[in-house]
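re: ur question from earlier - yeah i can do the single chain one, its not a big deal. heres the input i used so u can compare w yours
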Amino acid sequence: MILTAGMLAANRYLDTLAAIGTNTLLGLVFVAYIVKKDFPLGSLPVIGKKFKKS
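and the output i got, formated as tokens:
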């Protein structure tokens, strides 16, 4: 909900390039959140070595 409001505000109040940059950043924040919460990177064989919990 907050990300959607941020994207709408960026599109309304910023120029085109700034809005694209803001929307891209907010999209990456969303993807990072989903990956962290729903996709266990520690269980992958190669990537898991980098993301193991201490």
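The CA atoms of residues 28 and 34 lie 10 Å apart. not sure if urs matches, ping me
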